[in-house]
């Protein structure tokens, strides 16, 4: 899991730089251009911000696959009357582990929202200057979301595929691969990605308050 998470983080930085370079020379959209310039100038900012998100994505996706394999095995043992005790003895531990993963996800999404807000506060002077020069606030808002969405999409996909591979591998260890593929685990990266976009959107009210031209007196 750590290896897959580290690979996803490295992928985020590399793709941020590549995406920024490709889009800067090929886009005519102000929104995409602003986001691409940011990704090109500091490609590892996204990797630093998203590192914990990607690790939790790997863990969560892998856990769903492992949980499916364990529950299937327990159900088979219950039918064969070889289960040592009641199902709740085993499922309680699985449910507590799942709750811990959900709690970890909530924490990292909160950290992502705080990190995005901190980025807005740090760049307040430049953003305010852009608004004073005539850039609409809605363009900056969309660019801020793109800075999260563009590098995060392939990284979350890679983390999800890696976590799925972990779940499939565990299923093979349990019974030689006779269990169905845990494709439902891919809902985890999709949910994480949507949560990250919502967390980034939480900083938009701060952006609106920070980019008033009058703020240049204090920036």
**What structural class results from the helix and strand content?**
mainly alpha
Q: Main β-sheet: number of strands, strand sense, barrel status?
A: none
If you average the pLDDT, what whole number results?
Answer: 81
Low-confidence runs: none
How many H/I helices? 8
Order of secondary-structure elements: HHHHHHHH
Ends distance: 43 Å
- Count the beta strands: 0
Number of domains: 1
The proportion of strand residues reads: under 5%
Q: Note the overall shape.
A: elongated
Q: Helix content range of the residues, please?
A: over 70%
Cα-atom radius of gyration? 21 Å
Set out the fold topology.
Blueprint: H1 2-26, H2 30-41, H3 44-79, H4 87-122, H5 124-132, H6 137-175, H7 187-201, H8 204-210
Helix pairs in contact: 1-2, 1-3, 1-6, 2-6, 3-4, 3-6, 3-7, 4-7, 6-7
Describe this structure in words.
With 219 residues, the chain is an all-alpha fold. The chain has one domain. The protein has eight helices and no strands. The mean pLDDT is 81.
Task: Based on the model shown, name its key terms.
219 residues, 82% helix, mainly alpha, 8 helices
Summarize this entry quickly.
This protein is mainly alpha-helical.
């Amino acid at each position: 899991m750590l290896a897959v998470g580290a690979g996803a983080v490295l992928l985020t930085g590399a793709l941020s730089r590549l995406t920024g370079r490709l889009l800067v020379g090929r886009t005519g959209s102000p929104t995409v251009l602003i986001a691409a310039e940011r990704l090109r100038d500091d490609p590892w900012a996204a990797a630093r911000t998203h590192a914990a998100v990607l690790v939790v994505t790997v863990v969560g996706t892998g856990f769903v696959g492992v949980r499916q394999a364990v529950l299937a095995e327990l159900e088979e043992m219950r039918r064969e009357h070889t289960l040592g005790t009641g199902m709740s003895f085993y499922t309680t531990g699985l449910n507590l582990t799942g709750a811990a993963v959900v709690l970890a996800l909530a924490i990292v999404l909160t950290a992502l929202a705080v990190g995005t807000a901190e980025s807005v506060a740090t760049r307040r002077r430049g953003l305010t200057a852009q608004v004073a020069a005539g850039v609409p606030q809605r363009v900056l808002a969309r660019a801020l979301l793109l800075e999260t969405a563009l590098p995060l999409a392939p990284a979350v996909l890679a983390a999800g595929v890696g976590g799925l591979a972990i779940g499939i591998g565990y299923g093979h260890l349990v019974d030689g691969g006779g269990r169905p593929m845990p494709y439902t685990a891919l809902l985890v990266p999709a949910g994480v990605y949507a949560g990250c976009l919502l967390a980034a959107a939480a900083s938009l009210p701060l952006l609106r308050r920070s980019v008033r031209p009058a703020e240049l007196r204090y920036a």
